[in-house]
Amino acid sequence: MGRLGVADRHLDLALIIWSMSDETLNPGYGAGCAAALVERTPGAVDPGRLAFYRLLDGLLSTPTGPPTSGQPRRPTVEGDAGHTCGHAQTTLERPMTKINLTVDGAKVSDDVEPRMLLVQYLREKLGKTGTVIGCDTSNCGACTVHLNGTSVKSCNMLAVQAEGAEVTTIEGLAQNGTLHPVQEAFRECHGLQCGFCTPGMIMQSVDLLNENPNPSEEEIRLGLEGNLCRCTGYQNIVKSVQHAAAHGAGATTSGAQA
Amino acid sequence: MTATTERPADSTKEIGKDRRRKEDQRLITGRTRWTDNIVLPGMLHVAMVRSPFAHATITNIDKSVAEAATNVVTVITGADVAEEQGGLPNAWPITPDQIAPVHSPIAVDRVVFAGEIVAVIVARSAAEARDAAELVDVDYDVLPAALDLKEAAEDKVLAHPDLGTNKSAYWTFDSAQAGTGGNVEEAITKARTDGIVIEREYRQQRLIPAFMEPRSTVVDPTGEQITMWSATQIPHILKFLLAAVTGVSEAKIRVIAPDVGGGFGGKLQTTPEEFITFLLARRLGKPVKYTETRSESLMAAHHGRDQWQKLTLAADKDGKVTGLKVDLLADMGSHISLVGGGVPVLGAFMFNAIYKFPAYQFNCQTVLTNKTWTDAYRGAGRPEATFGIERLMDELAAELGVDPFVVREKNWITAEEFPFTTVAGLEYDSGNYEAATARAKELFGYDELRAEQMARRASGDPVQLGIGVSTFTEMCGLAPSRVLGSLDYGAGGWEHASVRMLPTGKVEVLTGVSGHGQGHETAFSQIAADRLGVAFEDVEILHGDTMVSHKGLDTYGSRSLVVGGEAIVKAADKVIEKAKPIAAHLLEASVDDIEFEAGRFSVRGTDQGLAIAEIALATFAAHNLPDGVEPSLDSDATFDPVNFNYPHGTHLCAMEVDTETGQVTMRKYAACDDIGNIINPLIVEGQLHGGLVQGIAQALWEEAVYDDAGTLVSGSFVDYLLPTAADTINFDLDHTTSPATTNTLGTKGVGEAGTIASTPAVVNAIVDAVRHLGINDIQMPCTPERVWNAIQGVHKGGATEAAAMPHFDPAEPGQDSTEGSAQ
Prior knowledge:
The complex is a heterodimer.
Chain A: H1 13-19, H2 29-40, H3 47-60, E1 76-77, E2 90-91, E3 97-103, E4 106-112, H4 118-125, E5 144-147, E6 150-153, E7 166-168, H5 181-188, H6 198-211, H7 217-223, H8 235-246
Parallel strand pairs in A: 3-7
Antiparallel strand pairs in A: 1-2, 3-4, 5-6, 5-7
Helix pairs in contact in A: 2-3, 5-8
Chain B: H1 24-29, E1 44-50, E2 56-62, H2 64-68, E3 72-77, E4 110-111, E5 117-123, H3 126-133, E6 137-142, H4 149-153, E7 167-174, H5 175-178, H6 184-194, E8 196-207, E9 216-220, E10 226-230, H7 235-246, E11 253-256, H8 272-284, E12 288-291, H9 294-300, E13 304-315, E14 321-333, H10 342-347, E15 360-368, H11 382-400, H12 404-411, E16 420-421, E17 427-428, H13 433-444, H14 446-459, E18 463-473, H15 481-486, E19 495-501, E20 507-511, H16 520-532, E21 539-542, H17 560-586, E22 594-597, E23 600-603, E24 609-611, H18 612-621, E25 635-639, E26 648-658, E27 664-674, H19 681-700, E28 732-736, H20 753-770, H21 784-795
Parallel strand pairs in B: 1-12, 10-11, 14-15, 20-21, 27-28
Antiparallel strand pairs in B: 1-5, 2-4, 2-6, 3-5, 7-15, 8-13, 9-10, 9-12, 13-14, 16-17, 18-26, 19-20, 19-25, 22-23, 23-24, 26-27
């Protein structure tokens, strides 16, 4: 199934960057990546990825804060001699990066660590605890939000990648106290039990219906494949999406369209 | 007076309505309170350092680098807190001589499973705590690990060398000794000469509950009470055991289970993480939070199942069963957890299922290994037993060459025979297996699918069709306290409720059960609304906080409705009795003339009356009450059931098996369950759907797999295969109704039914599809590889095991997908 969200394509970028050596990761690295991306995918450049690469050079040239003067800016790998678990020993002094974005219609701005995930930013900095974390491998989809109108797993991209973006969470889906038709449908069709997967499931369902207002049962099942639920056995979730489709949910959108 | 919703005088009953859930508004809008959402002033964050080894001696821990890291508050090891950390409790020692290792929250000098906590970091942020966890340097001397259950049972390698054995407890039941039936050995001996003996060994693979909300704990030591929020199924039991283990007064501990994201038995536990955060908050005087990662959850939250079942079924030549003998090995993992040893024992009463077996013996050896500890997972003991017997009944039918229903009908308890005392000593109060079966066959299109199966056999279709039957029952609604006592369980099985009549006409119902997705707020509102004659909307269900709902035994074993719901009924009835003399006084009538119906107290034979809300307000004002009557309608009740209850049902599954590739596809699943009277059909349907998928997942996908070093290799959602929407189908469900006779609502539990019933239905269907190829078992999960190997093994004339050839080895025959199809 192709459409599991933009964020899947950014898989582990953060880890890749942290694992690179200082020599590789110099200002200009991002521009190089961006150029390579354009060359590799002419005419179909992923705008989120491109924006992230461009942002990267800004991060890399960010001066380090006072306590670390004379220290390398990035984590120093001191080798793992004596470590039985194989973890590199690191001392970390992380620069903060300022980001500006719109979340659930409100303009927000914060200094964040570049490694902070979008879901952590939403929960910890903004208190948007309606969006939850269910796994650490981007399998469960509980953290699904919309980024510029398209679903992404917010555990699978960095907060800094959302620079300039419009993010919609489950908390921003209802408008003026009126539930989104998909929210209504989940209640009507008993599409949730414990409710933990529900924010992600609803956000993915909204996205699915935006793309395909009249999906077949199979299209719904495939379209929700990236979101795990342990309670419902999915039958009533599928029914909820069908119900929402029948009640015009596909005509609605949330957040700004990319 | 604030508005209460007018309940129409001629209202239909709330019970039985498919009310939409009260819980949903907050859950669909993100206005939730999961434990991990809680943030408190000065709160510190905890990260764990966990052992990468299954069994090793800790020779040194250097925590100096971690301690020196910025924003790290403290780092503790097991040795640092050895005197004060206590041991995690086992509430169900199944035998007086059960062997159970000390279960320290933090390992002190030896680790006994990969994932055990060896050091704990406290830092100002969760990220800094995790960073510092990487800086702790632990030296281990690796020890041989006891990993294979059968080998562990032979004490080849000891999981705990100091104990001298891996054998924890041997629990046995024999119908001849108990006086509930005959001698099973005699039955088997006789069947060997002039009957049928079916001998099988089945594997119940290890599963992981995998609730969607990772476990999280916040402990706030500020203020007089120490408050713990925890993603738990059992706040009351946790409070009691925190007090019992730590010596802190029970009255100084408050446990809150806020919104809890699923449990399935996996949060029926008191965990190392809970005891560690409790200890740290007390030490530091600051709130602390720990939230596990999914990888930690899969590795270190308790697992379920994991048994070898050696089964011997004796029958006469006509298929009438004469005896059943069960020999179990049950893997407890590294420790005997809260009710770990009791899980297989719950199965002891269920192997005889819906049948009238004259002789029965159950023997269970619980075994310690160096794997994650096991405990309850949805069904807990009963799915394992149901799988064993329902597989055997299909094998017996195959041996006789008859339809699986023929042997079941020959052996099951008939509708006229209830109440029926089984060979395991339980009294089944009600049921009707004939009716449920007839309806299930109708829903399924049994005869048509059998005809299609025959046609595909005849034509040699490479995709064969199999039909699996599971006529299950279970014991649930845990449980009569006396019975639990007789089984050496450490607590009772009652449940508590309070009904508080507020002056505004609203009703607060406090329940001691603690929901985490079941819809208690909705179903219990329906019960209270009917009983008190108030509007559904005016009832508020309060639960999951030991300072609000002060007394209870929590949620597991399909007990919330049948035990907790009945307690609400009893408390509501007391409210009505307390209101009667006040109503009589206000209406200037004799108490004997007061009638209560549909929320109204009226004087018999007149049109005079008062609504219950009016009595509540008058009682609150207390200006005009009869002499000697206390100004309160509020009432408590504690209900202890006299029996378990026994849902049952007939489940039918059609599986298509591609004999060329081993691919299995579910074609149809239909079931008719008898769960007594239904409070809310919508919720019941949801419980069944979810339960079915968990049981089907055991048959087809899920398994906790360890490598030969004792590392969990299915330790993420990449590797542990939870089914997705794309893997599952819609089910066809219906109900027959035989009300339970041991609660006034006539209800039976439904939370575990689907899981218990579905696993054998699926495996029976797969085996049925390929039985003509000479196959009589495929080990779960029935992956395409296993199915394919089974088919290949038969074709080569060898044992199934011998067919485990390397993937896609061109030198091997049968690799071409066009080869090896059914002949």
